[in-house]
Write a structure and sequence with these properties.
This protein is mostly helical and about 100 residues long. Helix content is about 45%, strand content about 0%. It is built from three helices and no strands. The two termini are about 15 Å apart.
């Protein structure tokens, strides 16, 4: 029996917060307070997140969880909240570890 090393939603949330709280080149941050577990279904379009910040978040997630998010998910309308990001990462980790 193989034990899957699936990240928790809290771990995914922490990486997303790290990405969105990191100052950009202009010194601005996307969010000023970390997202909480109560906000996992909050749509990213309701936050001041631009495409560069979104891609920065994707790169950090890929690096942290050692995976590649497929191109069909690389839009803010597809990965539109923490919960959806978590579901995709969970699925990718399961597929990766079952190979």
């Amino acid at each position: 029996m193989v034990l899957l090393n699936i990240p928790t939603i809290n771990e995914v949330l922490n990486v997303i917060n790290q990405a969105l709280l990191t100052p950009m080149e202009n010194g601005n941050v996307n969010i000023t307070e970390p997202l909480t577990m109560e906000q996992v279904e909050l749509n990213f379009s309701d936050l001041p997140i631009d495409s560069i910040s979104f891609i920065h978040m994707i790169v950090l997630l890929e690096s942290e969880f050692d995976l590649e998010i497929p191109d069909n998910y690389l839009s803010i309308s597809e990965l539109n909240c923490v919960k959806k990001v978590y579901e995709v990462i969970k699925e990718l980790v399961q597929c990766k570890e079952c190979v």
